[in-house]
């Protein structure tokens, strides 16, 4: 395509750019978009104009338009680091995490001292579960940024991933001394304090973050989970409802505000209002990250077809004899955090939290020759396939043990409470036939309602309401029925939430025995566990075992909608 300049353009360009400069200096990016578009039409290959157009669109929330302009900018000048950086921000706002990471990566290649790009990339790869890579990005932000805000925050986030919480708190407090209006530092500190059970301090941090940066209104979600909302919380409900009207509030923040209002309304006994906002939050989720129920059902079919009794039977012959892993699986909100708090009170058990290891290796297994076609490799009699699957599982086992031993080098057992490991129970047993897999189950409608009220990051392919969630439960139950039939009963242990909360000691004794360990009375006091809790159950896990969540769905019975299909299981 010819790039011959328009001879009229220079005469028209000067007044356009002068107007743009005047508008941007006056803080009017929305008004600058029209003259920037006119300038871009006159010089479509001017990377600076396209960048400035993209930036103006980004600032006023016209994110798709921003992406188009910024992509044109980097196409015209592939070495334009700032354009790649802003393109990363735009992709991030759209929920396109992998494209955002790629853009930040290119920006930092071109400009290695671009501190915020390192920081943002670290935050995204952390979401994807790549913890070492996230630490590396945050460390680069800290090195590049030094005593700048993003430099300090990068250092703090690296420390948080490494569970060096005391050092991270110190860095965050130093950041707030240097910059008392750093809303992100307040939010990070609030999250850390809530994970440690210091809820009053955490609540104050979230309040401060929102006051400084109203576009961070999603922090209300964490604020209302610091304790029950009462009639003494003057105007909090009204403040959150007003926050929904904040101009340019992003979808993710809006979703969290709806969930926060729902939680507050539930605490205040207004269940109709609560469900109205839980449903609204699910609507936002559907618009931003729709779930493919048919693809998930196909995945379940394939896992059942692959993990036959014959496949499982080879575990003792081909798998690792190491008994270190204790996997706590089940639907989210089914009691997995409580069980991990219980077992990790045992002095010989280390807590690993939610590890993304098997989600990654399981997906790789299905993509690779190790999984074969639609039939299990062990049934084909193909010795090459046997070698492939054995090598794949041997490497997975070695890598997984490396992860666990780094978490708790001296522990006899280490937990992994990623709920979605229920997908990979057969693969995990094949790799570790002596591993303990604890399946947590809870009344279906109570579990579904709790999921409907909880924020899950968009990177998780997971529905939070409606017919999609009902279908997900049906497929989950199909797979669990299969595991119950093919896995050894002494390795696949099932724990009912209602039984655990009704008579804790016999259930807990059974769990500890299944892990192959002697009894320890500390397991009866999970509320005393000092470890940081990073799941949505931060407040609940600091309370003695209670039963008030049993049959709580009845409060919402008139407003269940499609979830009513789960009432009878």
Give your account of this protein's structure.
This protein is mainly alpha-helical and about 575 residues long. About 60% of the residues lie in helices and about 5% in strands. It is built from 27 helices and 5 strands. It has helices at about 10-25, 30-40, 45-60, 65-75, 80-95, 95-110, 115-125, 130-145, 150-160, 165-180, 185-195, 200-210, 220-225, 235-245, 250-265, 270-290, 295-305, 310-315, 315-320, 335-345, 355-365, 385-405, 425-430, 445-450, 465-485, 495-500, 505-515, and strands at about 325-330, 350, 415, 435-440, 490-495. The protein has a 5-stranded parallel beta sheet with strand order 2-3-1-4-5, with helices on both faces. Helix 7 runs parallel beside helix 9 and helix 9 packs antiparallel against helix 10 (about 165-180). The longest helix is centred in the last third of the chain and has 25 residues, at about 385-405. It is globular and about 80 Å long.
Protein traits:
569 residues, mainly alpha, 27 helices, 4% strand, disordered N terminus
Quote the average pLDDT.
92
Report the major sheet.
5 strands, parallel
Helix residue percentage = 55-70%
Shape type? globular
Structural class: mainly alpha
């Amino acid at each position: 395509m010819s790039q011959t300049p328009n001879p009229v353009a220079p005469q028209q360009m000067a007044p356009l750019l002068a107007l743009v400069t005047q508008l941007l200096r006056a803080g009017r990016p929305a008004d600058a978009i029209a003259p920037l578009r006119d300038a871009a039409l006159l010089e479509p290959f001017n990377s600076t104009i396209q960048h400035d157009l993209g930036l103006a669109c980004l600032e006023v929330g016209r994110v798709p338009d921003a992406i188009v302009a910024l992509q044109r900018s980097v196409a015209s000048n592939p070495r334009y680091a700032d354009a790649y950086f802003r393109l990363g921000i735009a992709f991030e706002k759209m929920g396109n995490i992998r494209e955002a990471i790629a853009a930040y990566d290119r920006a930092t290649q071109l400009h290695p001292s671009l501190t915020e790009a390192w920081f943002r990339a670290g935050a995204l790869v952390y979401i994807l579960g790549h913890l070492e890579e996230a630490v590396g990005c945050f460390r680069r932000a800290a090195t590049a940024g030094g005593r700048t805000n993003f430099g300090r925050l990068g250092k703090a986030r690296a420390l948080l991933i490494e569970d060096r919480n005391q050092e991270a708190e110190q860095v965050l407090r130093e950041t707030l001394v240097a910059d008392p209006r750093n809303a992100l530092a307040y939010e990070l500190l609030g999250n850390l304090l809530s994970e440690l059970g210091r809820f009053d301090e955490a609540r104050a941090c979230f309040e401060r973050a929102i006051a400084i940066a109203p576009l961070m209104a999603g922090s209300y979600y964490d604020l209302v989970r610091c304790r029950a909302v009462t009639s003494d919380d003057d105007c909090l409900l009204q403040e959150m409802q007003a926050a929904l009207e904040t101009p340019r509030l992003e979808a993710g923040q809006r979703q969290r505000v709806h969930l926060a209002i729902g939680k507050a309304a539930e605490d205040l006994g207004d269940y109709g209002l609560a469900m109205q906002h839980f449903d609204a939050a699910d609507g936002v989720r559907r618009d931003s990250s729709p779930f493919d129920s048919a693809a998930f059902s196909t995945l379940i079919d394939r896992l059942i077809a692959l993990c036959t009794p014959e496949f499982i039977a080879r575990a003792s012959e081909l798998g690792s004899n190491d008994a270190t892993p204790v996997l706590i699986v089940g639907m989210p909100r089914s009691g997995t955090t409580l069980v991990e708090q219980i077992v990790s009170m045992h002095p010989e058990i280390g807590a690993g939290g939610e590890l993304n290891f098997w989600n990654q290796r399981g997906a790789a297994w299905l993509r690779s020759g190790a999984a074969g076609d639609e039939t299990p490799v062990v049934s084909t009699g193909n010795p090459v396939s046997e070698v492939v699957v054995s090598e794949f599982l041997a490497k997975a086992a070695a890598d997984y043990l490396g992860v666990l031993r780094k978490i708790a080098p001296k522990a006899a057992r280490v937990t992994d409470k990623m709920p979605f490991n229920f997908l990979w129970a057969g693969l995990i047993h094949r790799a570790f036939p002596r591993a303990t897999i604890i399946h947590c189950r809870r009344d279906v409608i109570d579990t579904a309602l709790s999921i409907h009220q909880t924020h899950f990051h968009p990177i998780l392919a997971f529905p939070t309401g409606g017919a999609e969630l009902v279908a997900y439960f049906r497929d989950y139950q199909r797979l669990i029925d299969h595991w119950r039939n093919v896995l050894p009963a002494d390795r696949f242990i099932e724990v009912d939430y209602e039984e655990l909360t009704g008579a804790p000691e016999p259930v807990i004794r059974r769990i500890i025995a299944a892990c192959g360990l002697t009894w320890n009375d500390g397991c009866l006091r999970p509320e005393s566990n000092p470890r940081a809790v990073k799941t949505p159950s931060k407040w609940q896990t600091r309370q003695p075992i209670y039963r008030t969540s049993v049959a709580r769905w009845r409060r919402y019975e008139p407003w269940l909608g499609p979830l009513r299909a789960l009432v009878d299981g």
